[in-house]
Amino acid sequence: MRINARLFFLPQIELFEFKGEDLTDEEDGGIIRRIRKKGEGYSKPNEGALVDIQFEGRYGDRVFDRRELQFEIGEGDNYDLPHGLEKAIQKMEKSEESVFYLKPSYGFGSAGKEKFQIPPDAELQYEVKLKSFEKAKESWEMNTDEKLEQSSIVKERGTQYFKEGKYKRAALQYKKIVSWLEHESGLSEEEDAKAKSLRLAAHLNLAMCHLKLKEYSQALENCNKALELDRNNEKGLFRRGEAHLAVNDFELARGDFQKVIQLYPSNKAAKVQLVTCQQKIREQHEKEKKMYANMFQRLADKDLKSAATLRTSHTEDAEMKDEQNGVEDKAEIDTEA
């Protein structure tokens, strides 16, 4: 019996195209991309780029947002776009069409979005076409005047975000100032003073953002950077004290608040925090005293127990010896008889 058979070979498909490509830095699956149409070239939008997109947002089977939009990367919150979508757009090429799947932490989070009737902790899907974009200038492409001008602009933008409680967004703006001006050299006296003022404000504001976000090590780092620029800065000392206090470094916190009061006697907040530090230090000392007292008591009880055991052992040995001597004496009497 003869069987005619034809073999078919399917083209090889890259695994990430089937599963989707994880675009997150942490590789936590929070932003997954599936490319429907590849883009042109290799260039991609950067932070601050002006992008022109066409998109559709879905929650389940419902389309909740459909628009054509031109906006600057970093400003998406002003246009009701989740930060995960902005991050995804920065991975796109011109004319690319892709579908993005966002986990709640990259979408509208635990707050949801009332405007679109999106509940808390919702997973979202966006279909996006990147029609065109214009990259923002990188630091090395800007001269000193442009860096100073742009730093002033993003400082105001960061302050606005901070007032709205958008601390992560605010921090991104302040970080730009640091990246632009931290290593700038060859400045005139006037330019240097302005750059120093902007860097100082950026580090102080970054410290405040990180305190709000409970990122205390980063708050400390920025306080220290600010105090390198101005070692007696009132806000720098006070915020460093707050960061030390938050991680239970009460002695270091007390030192910072004492210095604030010494330099700025009218600072009432520092006086309140100093009282809190002193109270925490007393509580810590009492706790340590009790801990050591209990530890010594346990050691003493252990020694007493060991001594008692030793005495009992000696008594038993003595009694056993007496019994043995009695037996020997009786044996001698029996022999003599």
Quick overview of this protein structure:
The chain is built from nine helices and six strands. With 337 residues, it is α+β, with helices and mostly antiparallel strands. A hairpin with an 8-residue loop joins strand 1 and strand 2.
Describe this structure in words.
The protein is an alpha+beta fold and 337 residues long. It contains nine helices and six strands. It has helices at residues 15-19, 83-89, 144-163, 167-181, 189-212, 216-229, 234-246, 250-263, 268-336, and strands at residues 21-22, 31-37, 50-59, 62-72, 97-102, 124-134. A six-stranded antiparallel β-sheet has the order 1-2-5-6-3-4. The chain is extended. The termini are far apart.
Q: How confident is the prediction overall: mean pLDDT?
A: 87
The total of beta strands comes to 6
What is the succession of H and E elements?
HEEEEHEEHHHHHHH
Q: Report the major sheet.
A: 6 strands, antiparallel
Q: Which terms would index this structure?
A:
337 residues, alpha+beta, 54% helix
Write the layout of secondary structure elements.
Elements: H1 15-19, E1 21-22, E2 31-37, E3 50-59, E4 62-72, H2 83-89, E5 97-102, E6 124-134, H3 144-163, H4 167-181, H5 189-212, H6 216-229, H7 234-246, H8 250-263, H9 268-336
Antiparallel strand pairs: 1-2, 2-5, 3-4, 3-6, 5-6
